[in-house]
Amino acid sequence: MLSARQTLIREELEAGTGAAIGMAVDGSKSRTGLRIWFADLEERYGPVAEMRPYGLKGYAVTLGFGAFAGEVVRRIAGAGSEDVHLARALVASVDSSVEVEVQGQEMADWKITTGDFRMTAIIRNLPRDPEVALTEVSRDTIVPMMAAMAELIGYDVIEEDDHGEPEYEGAELFTTVRRRERNPRNRLLCIRLHGEVCACCGLDPRETYGVAGSIIEVHHLEPLSLLKEPRPYDPARDLAPLCPNCHRAVHTRRPEPWSLEEVVELMADPMGKAGIL
Q1: How far apart (Å, rounded) are the C-alpha atoms in residues 66 and 45?
Q2: Which of 14, 131, 139, 246 could cross-link to 242 by cystine, CB 3.0-4.6 Å?
Q3: Measured between alpha carbons, how far is 24 from 26 in angstroms, rounded to an integer?
């Protein structure tokens, strides 16, 4: 079943992590599994997630490191506090029904210092439809785990910038990954924390456009370029979901964008009678 649905799994993982994904079927154990890694690092040199059936309607996902991943582990061990915070938040966003453990560490403050690191997730009672089940496991469990690794490694995204914000988000550029969002991990966390309803106009794109409605964008409430001094990054308070129209409207004022409250007032009083303009 896993081997026949590699394309489905890869598409979910690449959309969520913003990185090219490599994978291979692993028949070395009694139940056939799938090994997943970042394609540009190759299986031996970076983090590897192993996915196998578990029980009657479940999967087990174990994340560790390849045999020659020392350089990447050292890079991760030196990640900044903001990247560590975001990586932990990504893993913490996994649904509470999934049993997630880090070998020998507490989940609240796990860290990677050696190649012996192991994170395991057990997902039970999945839907009977195999494609629905694999989509759920990929999107809701493997994506946050691998996205956390991408954040710690320093994967970032270069995009044409039309909002007056910095080209880069997060840590030092490690590789170039072209996606619509500058950091797809931010979009993942924003949606998990706040949902997909626009914080300004209340539009739920999926209700309006159906399968074409995955268009919610991520807005930094305090633009990175305007930070007076570094402070801890908190995805719960620093990000907001906006529809494309409201996101563009927010950034029509520069260098300091309109606040969400100001945009809501503008929509209620477009002629500026309230004196915002």
Answers
A1: 5
A2: 246
A3: 6
